Amino acid sequence: MLTRAAACSPDPHQKDLRTEALAELSGFRSEFYACLTARADELFELTEALLCTAGPVTTLVDLALAPEHRRGHGALYGGLNQGRIEISRFRRALAGLPLPRAAGGRLVLAVDVSPWLRPDAATSPDRSFCHTYGRSKDQHLMIPGWPYSVIAALETGRTSWTQVLDALRLEAEADVAAVTAAQVRALLIRLIEAGQWRPGDPDILLVFDAGYDLPRLAFLLADLPVEVLGRLRSDRVLRRPAPSRREHCLASPAGGRPPKHGGAFRFVDPATWHSPDQATSTQTTRYGTAIATAWDRLHHQLTRRAAWIDHDGELPIIEGTLIRLTVERLPGDVHPRPVWLWSSALSLSAARIDLLWQAFLRRFDLEHTFRLWKQTLGWTAPKIRSPEAADRWTWLIIAAYTQLRLARHLVEDLRRPWERPALPGRLTPARVRRGFRNIRPATSCPARAPKPGKPGPGRPPGSRNQRRAPRYDLGKVNKRPKSLAAKRDLGG
User: Fold this and answer.
1) 3-state secondary structure of 206
2) Nearest to 162 by CA among 357, 366, 299
3) Any bridge partners for residue 84, and if so which?
4) Taking Cα atoms as reference points, which of 360, 357, 361, 400 lies closest to residue 378?
5) CA distance 60 to 425
6) Per-residue DSSP letters for 117-177?
7) pTM of the entire structure?
8) How high is the pLDDT of residue 2?
9) Could you say which residues of the chain have pLDDT below 70?
């Protein structure tokens, strides 16, 4: 029989895991501080205040009142406006952290754009129109702001956690597909250098939502070990493979040029569908029966306009697997509609198809991350003028969120009386933030104490600002000729 002292003694294995997690968190905090090359102490303490402040962040200046922020509000704004972060080193630090993996040790990365809306900031440069959903009586509006492309590693199972690995502000008049492909390529190179992927491992799965040019992304990333998966609109039309020469001769005895594309596969017309290559049925607790039907070797019929207007040579045929997912029910009495997915992989088995549509559903975990950034951490709350300061603030948000993820097995659950108890390691990011202040003294805090000083004189009373801030016009995304005739008119 165990004695009372032995029964109350902590588990040595759990103690070792806690020590290891605490060391990993301290190491990341030290590396983050080393990435701050100017106003390092202020930027680090601003991140500390972001982590330890109770409740949602509504204004930037309120963070200066947190006990962890030992400097004044002037230093806070000075750090955002004049501070510097070595982004390349910080990106390598994020790529070197342990990453969540799907079944079989596969990395699943989600890519999406989240806007920082600034409709009234006429003095802020590099704004462009951002596509917003469900605003003003469920209308999709284009509102000026700074769109950010975010890449995060997804976990398995129902969770609100992701591991954010990169963020990039999309400049005005940018080619979204080309910029996204370059961002993904740079991240994959960092992951391979960090040993996150080795030859022989499964290809990294890239998950996109509707709105991305999936064939072009697959074409631009064809030399990398990736598989592109994304959602298509329900009004699209794909093409079957071109018939063989024998089939063409039998169908056209009079001869003629062999077709480049096969018959049309219209999503809205079941009469154009042929027998599926795979079909699976899965029982789920949340959606009921999920039925996935897959057709192999379907491709988009590309035209020499818009994104492909500058392509040299014959337009490629990029084949993939089309998946139609239907579920029995959705939460909230919403009528379920079919979801169409396209994967750049071919000859998929039934098990692979189930893994693909389940990985796509996990992509919505990134929406939880965006909601936490905006509603709790106050990502879009500051009225920052320059886009460079907005980039610094965004990276501070990523640094704070990464520390919350590293600390989710360390903090105690300080739940409210009306909240449900959570299992160890299953706390939400907001509840981990609630207890981060208690474990902060056990981690490394490299920021130095502020030097004593006194505030400057400021603007003399009664004086007015003599220099008006310049105003900037709004830019557009994907500003390019849509046809060869328009290109010739522009002198291209």
Assistant:
1) strand
2) 366
3) 38
4) 400
5) 30
6) E-TT-TT-SS-EEEEEEEETTTEEEEEEEEEEEEEEEE-SSS-S-EEEEEEEEPPTT--HH
7) 0.90
8) 40
9) 1-14, 134-138, 244-258, 333, 476-492
